[in-house]
Amino acid sequence: RVLFRSAEFDFDAWHTSLGAVTNQDPWNQSDRRKYYDDTIIGNSNELISLNPDWIPTFMTGNHDVNRAASYIGDKVQDDQEAFKLYAAMITLRSGIPFIYYGDEIGMEGKKDPDCRRGMIWGETRQDLKLLEYYKQWINIRKSSKALQKGTTQFINIDDKNGTFEMIRTYKKEQ
Question: Residue 54, SS3?
Fold first, then answer.
């Protein structure tokens, strides 16, 4: 027996994540906690209720949108910290983390077809620190059932300091 599961990109969560790391409010929401709960958790819960086999897919980007490096780089002075936070947000969420080729090395690209550039080969042209950071988060995720399968709860969103806290829980693991 073959089991097929449905997965799709969550563009609202993608946009919200980029807004969070660039300290922008992409949807002009005054109540970010409610918005994060509705967008990141609510959309997933709604789709799961319609199709229990559905799996949320949180992406760094894809061929339809500006690459994360271009989006973040246009809005943030210290883009390295924003890139690192973005990598953590993508890999710590429930569902499937989807890293669009080149995003793990800081590849740029704006409006289509620029976002479809060929992969940058050669380590001298790649952001190897960012690549290592992605690898660290992927390894952390692989070692934790709570990060792989757990539910997500936002416990603190602090707009003043630009921080948020969340808990991932699976069975007794947090």
Answer: coil
* Segments in the chain forming alpha helices (H): 11-21, 32-36, 43-50, 68-75, 79-92, 128-142, 145-149
Hey, what are 53's tokens? Answer: 């086999």
Please give the Cα distance from 62 to 100 (Å, whole number).
6
pLDDT number for residue 128 = 94
Put the strands of the sheet holding 55-59 in their side by side order. 7-9, 55-59, 96-98
Rounded Cα distance, 117 and 112, in Å? 9
Tens of pLDDT, residue by residue over 109-154, are 998 899 999 999 999 999 999 999 999 999 999 999 998 888 777 7
Token pair recorded at residue 124? 């001298």
